[in-house]
Design a protein that fits this description.
This protein starts with a helix and ends with a helix. The chain has helices spanning 2-17, 137-142, 179-187, and strands at residues 24-30, 33-38, 41-48, 51-62, 65-76, 90-95, 100-105, 113-116, 122-132, 145-152, 155-160, 165-166, 173-174. The radius of gyration is 18 Å and the shape is globular. Strands 1, 2, 3, 4, 5, 6, 7, 8, 9, 10 and 11 form an 11-stranded antiparallel beta sheet that branches. A two-stranded antiparallel sheet has the order 12-13. By secondary structure, the protein is an alpha+beta fold.
């Protein structure tokens, strides 16, 4: 019994030590308050028939208020329909343990920016901040996210999360399901 307890204790410590170090991009503290943000991570990527969608997340802490700074990048050789955020926009995160977490949009109505690239590809970028309430932080730190539903102005779109993602954009490895587990600790305090 003592050996089993010792084994579990050692495994737990190895897991804690194996966690990725925090990659904080911005850490500002001045007379106006504090702002801390992680580096931008790709949490979703899909490419099919000349159309691609990439979603980036950055976690931020502004004077103790935690938020996701999200950026949706769409590319296509065809015209790209605008998606917008309004006061009713939300992100729903389904956790591996079955819980559903709701994050609320905290900005002005926006439909993002339309950009035409020099190789005639069309690009549309939509950015928005979604508040993480204090009552869901522990749930996000303990359970992987398996699914995300985004309520845009006028439509809802589902995005399944992968355990591991090798990005076509930058060839880096990301772990979208564990994003909050590894990153929330970086900006909580």
């Amino acid at each position: 019994m003592k050996k089993a307890f010792l084994f579990l204790f050692l495994i737990q410590n190895l897991i804690l030590l194996a966690q990725k170090p925090c990659e904080v991009d911005t850490d500002i503290s001045d007379s106006l308050g504090t702002y801390k943000a992680t580096k931008q991570n790709i949490i979703f990527e899909r490419s099919f028939a000349g159309n691609s969608t990439t979603i980036f997340f950055t976690l931020s802490n502004t004077n103790g208020i935690l938020a996701i700074e999200s950026q949706f990048l769409q590319r296509s050789n065809e015209f790209i329909k605008a998606r917008c955020f309004d006061q009713n926009s939300k992100i729903f995160l389904q956790l591996n343990d079955g819980k559903i977490i709701t994050l609320f949009y905290s900005g002005n109505d926006t439909c993002g920016s339309y950009l035409n690239h020099e190789n005639s590809a069309n690009n549309r970028v939509l950015s928005g901040n979604f508040i993480i309430t204090k009552d869901v932080i522990e749930d996000l730190k303990l359970s992987p996210v398996t699914f995300m539903r985004v309520k845009f102005a006028g439509e809802m779109i589902d995005y399944p999360f992968k355990t591991e993602l090798i990005s076509e954009l930058d060839q880096k490895k990301y772990e979208p399901e564990k994003y909050f587990i590894t990153q929330l600790q970086c900006i909580e305090h």
